[in-house]
Design brief:
Elements: H1 6-9, E1 13-18, E2 21-25, E3 30-34, E4 47-50, E5 53-57, E6 62-64, E7 74-83, E8 87-93, E9 98-104, E10 107-116
Antiparallel strand pairs: 1-2, 1-5, 3-10, 4-7, 5-6, 7-10, 8-9
Length: 117
């Protein structure tokens, strides 16, 4: 059963690819993405541009890329860089007196979408 989200169809939106993932973005939205390369040298407030726009549209028009829409670009601002909460990874083997505990904190970049053009 297909459900259409009508709130998406009534405003500008785009699907961008970054960090090996795809994100549905709208202007004014803030989202967490995989850490951008070189973002540790950027100050918060730095301007970013995402060129890999897979799909873009509004209430009147829809552009689907093959694989990307060449004329579209998503402008964003870097809000902060950070790391997620620690995830504990535990390996355990019964009867062998073996256990190993690791922790991992995934880095992220928080960005605010300014415009889709």
């Amino acid at each position: 059963m297909n459900h259409i989200r009508y709130d998406i169809l009534t405003m500008n939106f785009a699907v961008i690819a970054t960090g090996g993932k795809q994100y549905l973005v709208k202007p004014g939205e803030t989202l967490l993405i995989e850490k951008l390369p070189g973002s540790e040298k950027m100050e918060p407030g730095a301007k970013l541009s995402f060129d890999q726009v897979l799909l873009a549209g509004n209430e009147n028009d829809l552009k689907v890329g093959t694989p990307t829409v060449d004329t579209m670009k998503v402008e964003a601002t870097l809000v902060e860089n950070g790391r997620h909460k620690k995830v504990i990874v535990l390996k355990y083997k019964a009867k062998a007196r073996y256990k190993k505990k690791n922790g991992h904190r995934q880095p992220f970049s928080k960005v605010k979408i300014e415009s889709i053009s």
